[in-house]
Fold each of these.
Amino acid sequence: MLATRCRSSVATLALVAGLVSCGNPTPPSSGQVSVRVTADVSGTPVAAVVVDVSAPDITSPLVFNLAIVSGIASGTITLPAGSSRTITIRAFDAGRVQTHSGSVTINVQSGANPTVSIVLAPLNGDVPIHATLGSVTVTVAPISSSLSLGAAIQTVQLTVTLLDAQGNETNGAVSWATHEPGVAAVDATGLVTAVGVGQTNVVATFQGAVGSATITVTP
């Protein structure tokens, strides 16, 4: 199980329900733990994402590179279970210039871990990057869609892919929601319907992990 320490970090953190409170720190445990890392880098110039893991009992920091496909950086990191694991995520553009950074210090236990969300702060005025750490990742497709109120077809069907910490596809029921109901509505199957002009995100949630798609509605 993941639990944050009682201090702020470089990243803006949003802890998903199910994490242990700061008043009850998680004791160290043994074994290796696989954690799935996903970052939405669409809309940014990011060409590479690096994940570093350090801790008082980890002699040399662990380093992982995430693969980027269709605007999503993802991969599995393996680290020893225990307390005070600092996970730092750095993003770079094609010129190898760092563009974003964020970190979180957590306790890790063997077995499934709830999701921790991190917002990577931009270093040069770019948009932030949203990343998640956990046992399951949710990917929504298509990642963006444009609908028109004047078109004959004003809907788009979204689908989800669920991956476990090892990157294997798994099954489960997700819940759907829209940030702006006045722009687009979504039903229990992921079918999105245009409602009004504007832009919104439609979100799929599974076991605390979140995936989203951007919906733009024109007149």
Amino acid sequence: MGTVVSFKVVSDEPGDVIAAAIRAACAQLHQADAVFSTWNPDSPVSRLRRGEVVAGELPPEIDEVLGLCAAASALTCGWFDPWAAPAGVDPTGLVKGWAVARALTTLQEAGLTTAMVNGGGDIAVCGQPPDQPGGWRIGIRHPWRADGLAAIIADVTSAVATSGHYERGYHLYSPAGRSAAAVASATVTGPSLPMADALATALAVGGDEVLRMIEALEGYEAYLIRADGSEAETCGIAFAQV
């Protein structure tokens, strides 16, 4: 998926149990990459984008992810629209979060109750670290601050996703007929990482209009940094006390 995935586990389980669980989670991530990579011309998604296959001929994961994409598109009034991608449907704005969430589920199924999986800023967590009573304390990188200090530190109990152009260069596109907002960084927290991932993508191109939409969604909160350095957030986002 063009990024690095890291794991943090807090557990009394034996080391070999933890290692086996992480290996299984990594295998799932590699499988997701094999199915959804738009860089691999032979992946099922690449073949779908070229019109070589139809939905019924594809792995079931694609139907699941496209269903989530449709739901995210409806929630954002089309600001998140994988079907508007120039070369055909591209679920990249949601699928990394989906894959990271599945990797965390694999750890939980192995009996690991306190863990974090971080896939390039898409983060799924479970449990509560003993030194962080508000949940997992996650620092959100500032897009251009040279001192390395985080823009915010958020208390996260389930998922957080951040989207912007400062890590991978310009890679986000506004749906046809809409002008992208001047957003430097967009962060969304909530109960579902796939949905938080999609909402962060929409927020990064729709700006304050999408921020207002997220404000109305139960369980989701958002924070953005505009291109001029000004900030805005939904009223319920949980900033950690440091």
Amino acid sequence: MAGEMEYTGTQVNYFFVCHRKLWLFTRDITFENENEAVRMGRLIDSYAYPRQKKQIQIGSIKIDFMDTRRGVIHEVKKSRSIERSHVWQLKYYLYWLKTRGMTDMTGEIDYPKLRRKKTVILEPEDEVAFEEIFRKMEAIFARPTPPNVIDKPFCKKCAYYEFCYV
């Protein structure tokens, strides 16, 4: 990883949700603090799993909580509506940790509101996929203007909705 840019889990998540949102977020254009859905997610995160140490910052990544005895990192999410992005965000955390010597870790996405969990494992093909993901992310960052609006059903609940549509 020497010489590689440090990405955040949020950036990887946004890559799978919306390239425009990723571009804006990476330029510190954020609307998360005013968004009801984001506030609800933060509230769920703060009240779920009260005995766990939360928001563990390690380098550029911020893990919701970690079970060090079992070698499991946890990501708490409000809903499964964009689960693919949640899975890749957690796979990125596993990848990031592995490149720094923390091997044999697994992940778990916790949906406390739904009372569901999803186990996430970093597969060898995921590590290869990250090379392409990072290349595409860099191309998005290099754009002089934001990518086009994607106009998906979940856009209506996005923190960037008014910026993109109004």
